[in-house]
Design a protein that fits this description.
By secondary structure, the chain is an alpha/beta fold. It folds into 3 domains: 1-57, no CATH class; 113-370, Aspartate Aminotransferase, domain 2, CATH 3.40.640.10; 419-509, Aspartate Aminotransferase, domain 1, CATH 3.90.1150.10. It has 15 helices and 12 strands. The protein has helices at residues 39-42, 78-90, 112-118, 121-124, 136-153, 165-182, 199-206, 224-230, 253-262, 295-298, 362-398, 429-438, 466-485, 488-491, 506-509; strands spanning 157-159, 189-193, 210-214, 235-241, 266-270, 290-292, 313-315, 327-330, 336-339, 416-418, 445-446, 456-458. It has a 7-stranded mixed β-sheet with strand order 1-7-6-5-4-2-3, with helices on both faces. The chain has a 3-stranded antiparallel β-sheet with strand order 10-12-11. It has a two-stranded antiparallel sheet with strand order 8-9. 40% of the residues are buried. Residues 1-21 have low confidence and may be disordered. The chain binds pyridoxal-5'-phosphate.
Amino acid sequence: MNDLNPAGWRPAMSADQDESAAVKTFTGNRALHLEEPLLFEIGAADRCGVDFDETPDLPDTLGAFGRKAPLDLPGLSEPEAVRHYTRLSRQNYAIDLGLFPLGSCTMKHNPRLDEKVARMPGFADVHPLQPQQTVQGALKVINELAHWLIALTGMHGVAMTPKAGAHGELCGLLCIRAALEARGDAREVILVPESAHGTNPATAAFAGYRVENIPATEDGRVDVAALTARLGPDVAGVMITNPNTCGLFERDLKTIADAVHAVGGYVYCDGANFNAIVGRVRPGDLGVDAMHINLHKTFSTPHGGGGPGSGPVVLSEALAPYGPLPFTARQADGSVRLVEEEDAPGIHPEGFGRMCAFHGQMGMFTRALAYILSHGADGLRQVSGDAVLNANYVLRRLEDVLDAPFGASGPCMHEALFSDDGFAEGFSTLDLAKGLIDEGFHPMTVYFPLVVHGSMLVEPTETESKAGLDQFIGAMRSLADRAREGDPLLKTAPHLAPRRRLDETLAARKPKLVWKD
Ligand SMILES: *Cc1c(COP(=O)(O)O)cnc(C)c1O
């Protein structure tokens, strides 16, 4: 505690701890950023931000509900509360501030047009229990988006209700299970290659399947020989991420799909990275039976911080009858109906019901359709072209200073993958990632995918300009040099962030959820 700190709270980083920063302050404040205490430290239970004339007399009948002890929540004035949250928000990084290279997350610019459309009262203020004739516009948006998704993927049907990518995976596996059970063929195993996204094995296990791992080849793709050797009557299906988490296209998907179908199984494709292939590849042509699309990645929606999302699942002719309720259907008179009855035409009696209570994420549907219509088919094709071009530019501009494990096997898709091979003894991917914070960028995805040692997965996305990429590449080249030379200052980065290097797991393993004086 020091005298310069009238509020009496202690900055988490004091001057003496910050041994390596060039300029020290005694308060923890730095460059127009004040160190921010907890609400409990600046407020007090006996203070209040509002002036009441007097405590109103409650009628006796309410006495039983009266509070017995004070709530002990901190009271603050309005400016104190506003500043607290505004200051905290300035410690955050956001896609509106700069490039957000998180691989597998597709953190791209969200067009303001889409945001405006999503906020239109006719879409934003409707209630899911409104009579259908009063929400025809909203239902038409869902229906039109469904048709675009089917057309872009070359599939037969689509389940619009799943609320995120992983929820879509669960929906797809429940469709596969329903289809197998309908033919009296309960199978136990889902095959998941090493290059799949981590949610795939988690989903398969959650859906009650036994997960078996299929190895990757030297060039980062599914080992087709190993996969086909494992196929048999106990295999319900495979889950393949395409493009996979090494940022590579699974060229053998059609061969794999034919082999899986030949033994009576189904092919689930993780299509979260559809932005890399939209307008160029139709998964339906590759034999896929079910695939989720992360609307919040490919078709824009701010999704940092865990939400909101939307993961519609496109389905093949074989699986479409098992899709969940409800779904939209255009009527002869041009209106759109939300079909909710389990015995509706086209629904298989073995269908599994619903994924969620209502029709899905309306805010994401409006954004996605606005995105699709404003880009048009040619614009969507350019999205995937630019996403892949940008990733390959990053890959080729960094591969002389960073090891690119699959760089020699040809171009990547929308993500560039690097490893820590060549760093000085004792230096790791974590050091480079923390250094990136000092350089003004959010770190890339680290230590994922697992198939590569110390992996760094960079997804620049299609919305970055060449100038923006060059700025990032400059920072990365400098950090790569420092990691290879073993610059000790990199080991203790970040130096310029509001906090220094934090314990990576403590907050998750032992969260402090209650404030105690
Ligand atoms: C993001 C992602 C997921 C999970 O999507 P959520 O919406 O976060 O549930 C699954 N697979 C891949 C390949 C992804 O990139």
